């Protein structure tokens, strides 16, 4: 879930203004005016040193909202020109994130630090706790040698005065694969060769300096064209908006889409196919199999843990199967996947049946711009109803439970759930790959890149606990997978 507080509200306001500008009589000029409309002359500056800095950062956010990277902006190009370029754009980029250096704080180095609270006590608890010889006593006070420190925080936990603290850089600290670091200028920079598109940096930065490159203009152009445009909504969406998913379908159609498919429809195919594959692999003598529906995990395998690939299911994702169905039913239609995270943008880019990806934040902005109140709308049913288990794909444990429900012998499945990729779970997966087996006799490893599953994605709108309750309510009123 995006935890950037006011930064997310600012981003949403800019998206709403971009969408309103698109539907206005002069898109380019009204886009140019966004920073000035949001920070008019004489207004008290809420966040930065001056109104000009505020406007510059709003401009950068608008550039990302139009789908362009800030790293390539030379500051002389106006928003009007970017709006024109967005209208002329024929292809989307595979680079999904951009860093707004004007918004980046250039945080202090990520390290363990001894504060002035140090009392120079006789116990020397911190020095005793350090296994790497990184702490020495200078003039009666503890001093940490950064070249030796492993950031294990043993000294932090040992100090009786809480005098030792860990200074964190939120974006760096949140990245499970070390893909975001300071560059030579001291500001955050993304290494796309390492990046798995999990989007945690966008959620973690309290300045909102890491931004998704939106495809909203490309989607709006498609809607405005004569082509049929079909939305495909992820299972986790049931926990994000007011009203139910049948009212949500009505709202999406009112927003300009021609039809809406539940990706849970594809999740039913994924569960059944993965169940069959699981049995085949177990019969062949393989000790375990991991799931393959999480786009962030698939990126992680590709870039950081190829040795686990032999144990990963070959079954495609729910999005893959749903997009295949939509294109089969509507060969000339354009498809838009509505997603909880950045990683699905990467998956969509690699799938010829997925034309565009928009996230929940962007869909919410579209509803606001068009003044659509979901709870006031009638319900529109889906042509194909999805199962209880498929609608549970949006949270941790749901995929494993769906596979179990698809099997006649549920006792055959002994699941191990990886609830979010981090240093510890990555070590666990590396151990599985090296040993060729799981701990405690587990044979099905469900991996979710985000803690909590898709309800914890960077572009989600609701608290994960609340979202799960809403999804549970929908799922409990749905048929079991064997009845679909």
Account of the protein in words:
- The chain is an alpha/beta fold.
- The protein folds into three domains: about 5-105 and about 170-215, 2-Layer Sandwich (Alpha-Beta Plaits), CATH 3.30.70.20; about 110-165, Alpha-Beta Plaits, CATH 3.30.70; about 220-484, Fe-only Hydrogenase (Larger Subunit), Chain L, domain 3, CATH 3.40.950.10.
- The chain is built from 20 helices and 15 strands.
- The chain has helices at about 5-20, 25-30, 35-40, 50-65, 80-90, 125-130, 155-160, 170-175, 200-205, 215-225, 245-255, 265-285, 295-305, 320-330, 345-350, 360-370, 390, 400-405, 425-435, 465-475; strands spanning about 95-100, 110-115, 135-140, 140-145, 165, 180, 190, 210, 230-235, 260, 290, 335-340, 355-360, 415-420, 445-450.
- It has a four-stranded parallel sheet with strand order 10-9-12-13, sandwiched between helices.
- Helix 1 packs across helix 4, helix 12 (about 265-285) crosses helix 14 and helix 12 crosses helix 18 (about 400-405).
- The radius of gyration is 24 Å and the shape is globular.
- The model has no long low-confidence stretch (mean pLDDT about 95).
Which short descriptors sum up this protein?
single chain, 484 residues, alpha/beta, Alpha-Beta Plaits, Fe-only Hydrogenase (Larger Subunit), Chain L, domain 3, 3 domains, 4-stranded parallel β-sheet, 3-stranded parallel β-sheet, 20 helices, 15 strands, globular
């Amino acid at each position: 879930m995006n935890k950037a507080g006011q930064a997310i509200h600012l981003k949403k306001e800019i998206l709403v203004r971009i969408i309103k500008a698109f539907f206005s009589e002069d898109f380019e000029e009204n886009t140019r005016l966004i920073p000035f409309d949001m920070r008019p002359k004489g207004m008290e500056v809420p966040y930065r040193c001056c109104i000009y800095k505020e406007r510059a950062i709003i401009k950068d956010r608008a550039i990302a909202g139009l789908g362009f990277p800030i790293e390539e902006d030379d500051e002389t190009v106006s928003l009007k020109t970017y709006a024109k370029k967005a209208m002329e754009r024929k292809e989307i980029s595979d680079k999904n994130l951009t860093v707004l250096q004007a918004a980046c704080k250039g945080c202090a180095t990520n390290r363990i630090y001894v504060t002035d609270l140090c009392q120079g006590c006789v116990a020397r608890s911190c020095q005793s706790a350090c296994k790497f010889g990184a702490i020495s006593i200078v003039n009666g006070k503890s001093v940490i040698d950064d070249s030796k420190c492993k950031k294990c925080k043993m000294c932090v936990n040992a100090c009786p005065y809480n005098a030792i603290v860990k200074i964190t850089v939120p974006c760096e600290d949140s990245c499970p694969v070390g893909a975001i670091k300071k560059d030579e200028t001291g500001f955050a920079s993304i290494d796309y060769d390492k990046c798995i598109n999990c989007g945690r940096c966008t959620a973690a930065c309290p300045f909102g300096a890491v931004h998704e490159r939106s495809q909203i203009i490309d989607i709006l152009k498609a809607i405005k064209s004569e082509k049929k445009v079909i939305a495909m909504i992820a299972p986790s969406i049931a926990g994000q908006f007011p009203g139910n998913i049948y009212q949500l379908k009505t709202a999406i159609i009112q927003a300009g889409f021609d039809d809406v498919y539940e990706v849970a429809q594809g999740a039913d195919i994924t569960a059944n196919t993965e169940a069959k594959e699981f049995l085949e692999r177990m019969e062949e003598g393989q000790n375990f199999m991991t799931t393959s529906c999480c786009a962030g995990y698939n990126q992680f395998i590709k870039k950081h843990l190829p040795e686990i690939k032999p144990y990963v299911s070959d079954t495609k994702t729910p999005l893959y199967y749903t997009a295949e169905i939509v294109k089969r039913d509507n060969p000339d239609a354009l498809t838009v996947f509505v997603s909880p995270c950045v990683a699905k943008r990467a998956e969509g880019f690699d799938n010829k049946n997925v034309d565009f990806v928009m996230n929940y934040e962007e869909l919410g902005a579209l509803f606001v711009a068009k003044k659509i109140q979901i709870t006031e709308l009638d319900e529109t049913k889906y042509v194909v109803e999805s199962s209880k288990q498929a609608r549970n794909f949006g949270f941790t444990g749901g995929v494993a439970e769906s596979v179990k429900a698809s099997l006649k012998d549920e006792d055959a499945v002994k699941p191990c759930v990886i609830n979010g990729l981090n240093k510890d779970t990555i070590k666990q997966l590396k151990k599985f790959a090296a040993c060729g087996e799981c701990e405690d006799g587990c044979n099905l490893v469900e991996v979710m890149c985000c803690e909590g599953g898709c309800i914890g994605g960077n572009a989600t709108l609701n608290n994960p606990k609340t979202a799960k309750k809403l999804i549970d309510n929908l799922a409990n009123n749905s048929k079991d997978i064997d009845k679909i």
